[in-house]
Design goal:
single chain; mainly alpha; elongated; two-stranded antiparallel sheet; about 5% strand; 16 helices; 2 domains
Length: about 325
């Protein structure tokens, strides 16, 4: 009889624990962040024993703090973006991009992770004193790959269908202010640079005169568009010096101006800012066909440019 009472009491306590842990909805996501990233964000001392977080007023306050929530949000958004297979870093896109909104939506990731068995109920089942072991970057990458597959194939999210709509209806507001390959490619296709735009008739609704209206819309063939874009963009890169090409490449990889400045030997990021401003101005002229595409040799090396070639103008180092 005593044993039966003990079991019931234990079951009641477990139910209370499960309900209490539901208030820590994003704690499973925290434990899936690699230890290396937690150290950089100065959160390596956050308890690996979820029961300590549950019972300690101090650690519950840390969990509920804006700093902690933003850290989990930013880290998960960055990690998952790497695994979704979308071209360009997340910094290449603005907060208006539909997939940026999705990737930084923590409730969605918490639900997907829960469907894979990593839930607050699991944390509640751990005996006090049991720590969730830290994971490496490699383990985190494997986990994110599995979660990404769940994301793309989830019947409720219909992410593949959404992606098809998004990528074929891009607009300027989808991209951030920084220079990137994806933004340049969009500009090139949007403005039909170096390509003749032809029109195709689209039958519209009946007009005021009762006759069927014919609307002419621009049409650009998509066949070989990616290869054509790369060739076009290589032409633009040929106008830049080596350091400016490195800046463009690092921006595409998602590095900040401060990080680029440190990597390329600038005393501060203002030097990088000036170079980006120069590159943007040059790109605008190039996009409008106001600059020549540098000729290429059979080995892909640039031929000697004329004195008027803007790439030969000496640029004072920042």
């Amino acid at each position: 009889m005593h044993d039966e009472h003990t079991i019931k009491q234990y079951q009641m306590n477990q139910e209370k624990r499960r309900q209490a842990f539901k208030e820590l909805r994003y704690l499973p996501l925290f434990y899936l962040i690699p230890d290396e990233m937690l150290i950089k964000r100065k959160l390596a001392d956050f308890p690996r024993d979820p029961n300590i977080v549950l019972m300690s007023e101090h650690w519950r306050a840390v969990y509920n703090s804006k700093q902690f929530q933003v850290m989990v949000l930013d880290t998960w958004g960055w990690m998952m973006w790497q695994c979704l297979g979308i071209r360009g870093g997340v910094d290449n896109y603005s907060k208006n991009d539909p997939f940026v909104k999705m990737v930084f939506y923590l409730p969605m990731w918490a639900s997907l992770v829960a469907e894979m068995g990593i839930t607050t109920d699991y944390l509640a089942s751990l005996a006090p004193g049991t720590e969730v072991p830290p994971i490496t970057m490699e383990q985190a990458a494997m986990n994110c790959d599995q979660i990404a597959k769940q994301f793309w194939h989830h019947p409720a999210l219909k992410a593949k269908e959404v992606w098809e709509v998004v990528k074929t209806h891009r607009c300027h507001k989808d991209y951030s202010n920084q220079m990137s390959h994806v933004k340049m490619d969009f500009h090139r296709q949007y403005y039909h640079t170096r390509a003749k735009t032809k029109t195709v008739p689209i039958i519209g609704e009946y007009g005021e005169n009762g006759e069927e209206e014919v609307i002419y819309a621009p049409y650009t063939p998509n066949e070989y568009a990616e290869v054509e874009t790369k060739i076009w963009f290589q032409g633009f890169l040929g106008l830049l010096n080596e350091k400016d090409r490195q800046i463009v490449s690092l921006l595409e990889q998602g590095y900040t101006q401060e990080e680029i400045g440190a990597m390329l030997g600038y005393s501060n990021h203002s030097g990088v800012t000036k170079r980006i401003k120069y590159i943007r101005g040059l790109f605008e002229k190039f996009r409008k066909d106001e600059l020549p595409i540098p000729k290429q040799s059979a080995l892909g090396e640039r031929k000697k440019a004329s004195a008027k070639d803007p790439s030969q103008t000496k640029i004072k180092a920042e």
